[in-house]
TrEMBL record:
Keywords: ATP-binding, Magnesium, Metal-binding, Nucleotide-binding, Nucleotidyltransferase, RNA repair, RNA-binding, Transferase, tRNA processing. One of its GO terms (molecular function) is ATP binding. GO terms for biological process: RNA repair; tRNA processing. It comes from the Bacteria. Residues 258-369 form the HD domain. Belongs to the tRNA nucleotidyltransferase/poly(A) polymerase family. Its cofactor is Mg(2+). It comes from Deminuibacter soli. This is HD domain-containing protein. InterPro entries: HD/PDEase_dom, HD_domain, HDIG_dom, NT_sf, PolA_pol_head_dom, PolyA_RNA-bd, tRNA_CCA-adding_enzyme. PROSITE patterns: HD (PS51831).
Length: 472
C-alpha cells in the first residue's frame, strides 16, 4: 500500500516486523492509523494487532530501542502501549467478541485477523496493513473500506443492527466520523441508527460527551448535530436542544426555527475560533428561548429574558452532560447571559458608561463575546447582514477606544471591601456590599474619577448616608 509515512514511522514498523518474526507471530497495522494515512489526515496513535500475545510483542519491540521505552500494559485487557516521543503505539492480540444484551462490554476470546476486522465498527476503520515478511505493506481490506474512503461513506462491515446493538456507542461514532471527515452515512446504516437509538441509554454519559466534543471541534459541527437530531439520538441525550426546533405561526406571524439558527451560529463561530467552549456557548446561546417564548397580540413572538433563563440552564446542562463544572462552565454561562448586550450598543447615542459596563461585565472574554455576536447574525438578507456587521465594527471600535483610556477589562475598583471594613470598623456584611457597589457604579457611570482619592471621598459620602463615620 502506498501511503506516506515518516522515516520514524517506517523505522518503527520495521522493528515491529522483525520482533514479530522472531516471536513467530503475524502482526498488522490496523484501524484509525491506516484510515487516516490513506485520507492524508495527521495521525498520532498507531494500533498494532497480532496473532498472539500483544503484551509480549510490545516488550520485544521496546527491547529493540535504546534507551528501552516504558511499556504500559493492562493484563486484563491484553493490551500494551509504548510512547515514542510524538507517536503512541498500542499492541493487542487479535480477538473475537461476543456481546450480551445489557452491556457494551463484550466477552473476548483470541481470534484470527478476520475475526478482529469483523468486530470493527466501520469499513473504513477495519483496514489492516501487513507487517509480515511474505506480504509486508499489503492492504488487507475485506469490506472495501478503501472504496468507502474514496466514496466518502460510513457503513458497518456486518449487518448494522448487529453492530449498533452490540455496542451502541458506535452510533455516536458514526455521526462523529461523518462530521469530522465530511462523509455520508450509508442509508442502511443510518436507518439502523434510527431504529437502535434507544440503545444509547446503556452507554455512559462520559463516552457520549466525548463524541459530542469531537463533533464540536469538527470544521462544521452542524453536520453532526443535524444527524443526531434526524436519527432520534438527540431527543434522548439532549432534549432541551430539540425544544429549539420548529417555527410556530399565529395570525400569519412566525418566528425563525431556533434549532437551525443555532446550528448556523455554531458553524459561523467554528470559522473564527477553535475554542471548544466558545463553540458550546454558541450551541447554548438561545437555549432559554423555548421556555420564554410568548405570543403578544398585534406584536408577534417574543423571547424576553431568554439570555437570563438560558444562563441559568447552563449549569444544569453541563451537569447532565458531565461537562466540567468549572471556569469553562462559567465562561459559557457568561457568554449566554451577555449575548444580547453588544447588539444593544449598536444603537445611536450610546454613552461611554454603557461601553464601560460591558467591558467590565465581559472582562477578558470580550473578544469571544464579539465573535459569538457576529456569528449570531444569520439573516438571509445580505444587506441586513452587512449593516449589522458594520454596526458591530463601530461597537468594536468604541470598545477599543474606551478600553484604551479607562482600562476596564481587568479592572477592580480602587477601594476594596477590606478597606471599607477597616475605615468604618465593620465586619463582613450587607453595608460593605452596598458601599462597594456604589463606588463601582459611580466609576463605571463616570460620576467620579477612577482613582483612589475620588473613590475614598465617595466612600465616606456613601457611608454617611448609612449613618457610618470613619474610625478615629
Ligand atoms: P480517533 O483516534 O480519531 O478517535 P480512531 O478510529 O482511531 O479515531 P479509536 O477510538 O482510536 O478511533 O479506535 C481505534 C480503532 O479501534 C478504530 O479505528 C476501530 O477500528 C476500533 N474501534 C474503536 N472503538 C470501537 C468500537 N466502539 N467498536 C468497534 N470498533 C472500535
Ligand atoms: Mg485512534
Amino acid at each position: 500500500m502506498d501511503i506516506k509515512c515518516t522515516d520514524r514511522e517506517l523505522f518503527l514498523f520495521k522493528k515491529i516486523a522483525t520482533a514479530s518474526q522472531e516471536l513467530g507471530v503475524a502482526s498488522y497495522l490496523i484501524g484509525g492509523f491506516v484510515r487516516d494515512k490513506i485520507i492524508g489526515r495527521p495521525t498520532k496513535d498507531a494500533d498494532i494487532v497480532c496473532l498472539g500475545d500483544g503484551i509480549e510483542l510490545a516488550h520485544a519491540v521496546a527491547n529493540r530501542f535504546n534507551p528501552v521505552p516504558t511499556v504500559a500494559f493492562f493484563k486484563t485487557f491484553g493490551t500494551a502501549q509504548i510512547k515514542l516521543s510524538d507517536l503512541e503505539v498500542e499492541f493487542v492480540g487479535a480477538r473475537k467478541e461476543s456481546y450480551s444484551r445489557d452491556s457494551r462490554k463484550p466477552e473476548v476470546a483470541p481470534g484470527s485477523l478476520e475475526d478482529d476486522q469483523n468486530r470493527r465498527d466501520f469499513t473504513i476503520n477495519a483496514l489492516a496493513i501487513s507487517l509480515n515478511r511474505e506480504n509486508y505493506g499489503t492492504l488487507i481490506d475485506p469490506f472495501n473500506g478503501l472504496g468507502d474512503i474514496e466514496a466518502k461513506i460510513i457503513q458497518t462491515p456486518l449487518a448494522p443492527d448487529q453492530t449498533f446493538s452490540d455496542d451502541p456507542l458506535r452510533m455516536m461514532r458514526a455521526i462523529r466520523f461523518a462530521t469530522q471527515l465530511n462523509f455520508t452515512i450509508a442509508e442502511a446504516t443510518f436507518t439502523s441508527i434510527c431504529n437502535n437509538a434507544q440503545r444509547i441509554k446503556i452507554v455512559s454519559q462520559e463516552r457520549i460527551t466525548d463524541e459530542l466534543n469531537k463533533i464540536m471541534l469538527s470544521p462544521k459541527p452542524s453536520l453532526g448535530w443535524d444527524l443526531l437530531y434526524k436519527s432520534g439520538l438527540l431527543q434522548i441525550i439532549f432534549p432541551q436542544m430539540v425544544d429549539l426546533q420548529g417555527a410556530e405561526y399565529i395570525d400569519g406571524m412566525g418566528h425563525k426555527d431556533n434549532f437551525y439558527h443555532t446550528l448556523q451560529v455554531i458553524d459561523n463561530v467554528a470559522e473564527h475560533s477553535n475554542d471548544l467552549w466558545l463553540r458550546w456557548a454558541a450551541l447554548l446561546h438561545d437555549i432559554g428561548k423555548p421556555p420564554t417564548k410568548r405570543f403578544e397580540e398585534g406584536h408577534g413572538w417574543t423571547f424576553h429574558g431568554h439570555e437570563v433563563v438560558g444562563g441559568r440552564m447552563v449549569p444544569k446542562i453541563f451537569s447532565r452532560l458531565k461537562l466540567p463544572m468549572n471556569e469553562k462552565m462559567r465562561f459559557v454561562q457568561k457568554l449566554v447571559e451577555l449575548h444580547l448586550r453588544p447588539i444593544s450598543l449598536t444603537k445611536e447615542n450610546i454613552t461611554d458608561s454603557a461601553i464601560r459596563r460591558l467591558l467590565f461585565d465581559a472582562g477578558e472574554d470580550i473578544e469571544a463575546l464579539m465573535i459569538l455576536c457576529k456569528a449570531d447574525i444569520t439573516s438571509k438578507n445580505k444587506y441586513k447582514v452587512r449593516r449589522f456587521l458594520q454596526n458591530y465594527e463601530l461597537v468594536a471600535a468604541r470598545l477599543e477606544q474606551v478600553e484604551e483610556s479607562d482600562r476596564i477589562r481587568n479592572w477592580q475598583p480602587p477601594i476594596t471591601g477590606e478597606i471599607i471594613m477597616q475605615t468604618f470598623g465593620l465586619t463582613p456584611g450587607k453595608q460593605v456590599g452596598i458601599i462597594k457597589d456604589a463606588i463601582r457604579e459611580a466609576i463605571l457611570d463616570g460620576v467620579i474619577a477612577n482613582n483612589y482619592e475620588a473613590a475614598h471621598a465617595y466612600m465616606v459620602e456613601q457611608a454617611a448616608a448609612l449613618n457610618l463615620k470613619p474610625l478615629q
